[in-house]
Amino acid sequence: MKKKVKQIVSLTLAAGLAVGMIAGCGTKEGSSGANGKKNVTLTFGSHQSGLPTSGIVQDLAKDFEDETGIQIDFQISPDAQWRDLIKVKLDSGEAPDIICVDTPIGLASSLHMDQYSVELTEQPWVNRIEKTTLAAVSVKDKVYGITFPGAKMYFYLYNKDIFDKLGLSVPTTYSEFKTVCQKIKEAGYTPIYEATTNGWHQVLPLFETGGLWLNQDPNMYDKLNDNKIDLDGIPALLTIIKQLDECAKAGYFGDDYLSNAWENAKEAMATERCAMTIAELGFRGQIEKEYPDFKATEKLRAFVMPWGDNHVIGVNPASNAYFINKDSKYSEEAKQFFDFLARPENLKKRLIGQPELSALCWPEITSKYTKEDQAFLDSLKKANVVQTSVNYIDSQWMDVGKDLEAMYTGALTPEEVLKTLKDRRTEQAKLQKDPGWVK
Amino acid sequence: MNKRKLYPWYFAGAAAFLFFLLCFVPGILGIAYSFTDWNNFSKEINFVGLANYKAVFQGNSEYLKYIGNTILFTVVTTIMKTLFGLALALLLTQNFIRFKNFHRMIIFSPQVMSYLVAGLVFRSMLHPTTGFLNNFLRSLGLNGLAKNWLTDLTMVFPTVMTVDTWKGMGYIMVVVIAGLLSVSPEYYEAASMDGASFFQKFWSITLPLLKPVLVNITVLNVTYGLRVFDMIYSLTNGGPGNATGVINTAVYKEFSKGNLAMGTTLSSVLFFVVLALLYFIIKSMEHKEVEV
Predict the structure, then answer these.
(1) Are A74 and A61 spatial neighbours (Cβ–Cβ below 8 Å)?
(2) Domains of chain A
């Protein structure tokens, strides 16, 4: 009797297991619903800052699902880890169907998305993207990705009320900047909100000030790429690293900058705990959305980073873009999603739904800049940022972030930071058999 | 022995073949790749001899620092986990403690948590201004003790090792408790009659009889410590700077840089170190087992 019960139980379990395995092996494909909608789930891998915090991309994906039945499953990874993670995933064949990574992809030091993704040159929306930005998602005139944000410009946003109260004016040189920081600190505020745990924010002063490099030599970027000059041939770079160290030691970044996360910057600015931070103009919209009582768009004004007495605003035509994994089973569905995103009404929806974004790289969509902002932008001298023009900079962005962190804790000197930066560039170039390095 | 009941050797053939193919061959291949310049950017693979190993051990390379960190981490966490695990096990087998199982469960529970979760929780708890720990210390008036746990160069490694000990000691405790419960109570009774104190009993009965358990624990702790990755990755990501980098965070970094050969070189170094250490640990312990 007992034996029989045992037999029945084990048979049922075995049958259950078999059914489970068969079900597990089945794909989600093919099981079209009665209304002709496809039952497909696309995986979408991104880093935190690749997707707007307002969730607008997820909303658009929901609309897309309602229309086509194709689901989008978002997999979001921390900024500091994404670059490493996606490389490992791509090489091991485990990458998601749609991949969001930072552009440009054409530099020798970029993630070589052209090797991993579906070519999109023939897609109908390609010609509607601004030419300079389209270059950031292309390799040798072949387009591989779709991108939306307009050119990025990082300023120091400052709290006008605090500046007025303390009788401060906008600094245009480093020494004026230091004086301003000192006065703000003495008044009990944290002069600058800095956050190093995300790994990228602290690096901006080094490479968004490319104007200084081009001032020294208008062909500087080409010379660097041909290895005719190395980074120690650019005095401005070491100067800025030293100045950052000086400001950190003087307490201008506050006490917690090594533990801070960039996600808390809005709160720090909205509560007027901190007086300045490096951000895009659109960041004000983002603050205002989360802290409606703090009129960020009126209270926060911008000035060009005065590190190394810089006067030129760095323009970054690159941002992040979406690519379709070459090995994806659902590349047609993914293309369909891109078509959907490229519709004018969805572009508008994206711009409106993303407070930090002021403009799209789709000229047909009018920007959100106010007249005042536009006049301010027009008045500035502009130069392309270093990381989109010089090889082996963007690929070590996060590592440089760690070097700066090490400098702030006293483990590295500014000269050593520069040396590691140089060495890493050489290492990467030699690995890639760059003709400038390997003869 | 009834020979007909034994399975013939070729029954294990399939498993041995799979093991050979999936575990042994990739391992050997990995070591072989460490003698090449294998990387992400070119399809050619050239033999470079010991160049990668030279780069690791030559001069003042940052890899040496990672190896040093790994060894320090292993030694300290092994000692701390064993000490705390043993102490807790002794305490939680005493008769005067009530709700023993409840206490054991609480102390064991961190073991069930994922390393990433534990790391992220501690990262927020250890934030210098908003973190629980410093707020708690300040509320007690101990402002001097509120430190920059994860960003101060002198504090960060001890902090990481403490968190790792907190997470791992429960498991060690459970293993030791199992060992303690298997010690026959007669020894203690006899020793008590002879007037032995607690420490005399511990030294002359508990410790010798626990030796096989302690050997196992040490092996487990050492192999874990040398291979540590998730705890450090989630707590500090090797930072600030590279202050808490260990071999496996370096391996991960090299792989993501596309320098695959250097990644396998570091892994191979780790493999040889683990192998050598384990050999000596097991050899040195196995002769000293007491005969009961």
Answers:
(1) yes
(2) 41-150+318-342 (3.40.190.10), 152-316+371-431 (3.40.190.10)
